[in-house]
# Entry
Amino acid sequence: MQDIRVSFQQCFNRDATLVVQSPGRINLIGEHTDYNHGFVLPAAIDKCVEVAVAKRTDGTIHMHALDLNELVILKAIALQPHPTTWVNYIIGVVVQAQKYLASASHELNNGFDICLQGNIPIGAGLSSSAAVECAVLFALNEMYALRLTKMQMALMTQQSEHEFAGVKCGIMDMYASLHGKKDQVMLLDCANLESSYYPLVLQGYQIVLFDTQIKHELASTEYNTRRLECEKGIQLIQQKYPAVKTFRDVSATQVAECLQNNASLEGTKVYERCKYVVDEIQRVQLAVKDLLAGDIAAFGQKMFATHQGLSELYDVSCPELDILVNAVTGNPHVVGARMMGGGFGGCTINIIKETEVDHIINTVSTLYNQKTKRQLKVYPVQIEQGTHIK
Ligand code: GLA
# Structure
């Protein structure tokens, strides 16, 4: 990346007040569980977004995306979703801050200049959009002394994604980007938003991401549909078991009893979706025990099981992701692999023996190219701190 202070100076002819970095994330296990009140086990990574900002006084926001060399200027008030995707990640957050302040005369409405750049691959399922939203809100929080906590910022950026990007995402991506700690994974309980951190000790293994280089168009509509399918399932379970509040109170037996062979669900996949969710909630809790016991092999087996559930029951995988997971299944040097994030493209996450990483990358790349005619991209990742001032 370029020196963003220099770029800011070139764009706006003055110094930036502040530079903020916000990372992308991986998720070891716990997929599509965040909006289902389950657990996730993400970590922030060594790929990030950077923003540089300074206040204006004329009521406009000047946004410069350095990687695209695009400049967009908008009035700071009455902001609406914009046709340019990256612009929404900035203004969506501004709108949340304005709602929070609920003051027509707040200085924020006088506008600001912002430069943006990053090295998180876009559309790869590493939460580049959440990283932008978190970087922007963190910067505004500092610059205008808004006194938001990181938790408030996570909730506000999530809301921004719902309203300005149209994806009814859970809290995981924003939470992980903001709260990451170096070399630690966080177990986030999405029912009460409490988290605990654990050092990730991989004993001679390395986390490597394989990027399909695909982002299927269905991703955001199917994502929202999965959410609705799960809501439908929980409503039906509640009819029979009124004490049930969320999937956390539901057993696999209850899912089968209420949803399998339920005539009102004919032609739907509500049973399959909910079965996956309760299995996965259970699996994450067991996987954390494996991690704490240093049993990487048992942990990795659960990653494979998660992939199978995502592919066969939750139906958010795609042929390219399945090819990549199948390519390493049964390889004694790969303890675990699965698709990661929302699905329909993006990356798989693999835990690979350090000494075998190069060899496995070569084999998988060749196979992927043969089967899909596409070039595999590979990212070894390190676990880094969350959003911070640079
Ligand atoms: C996307 C969403 C997250 C989460 C994952 C799936 O990354 O933004 O909230 O639901 O998909 O686990």
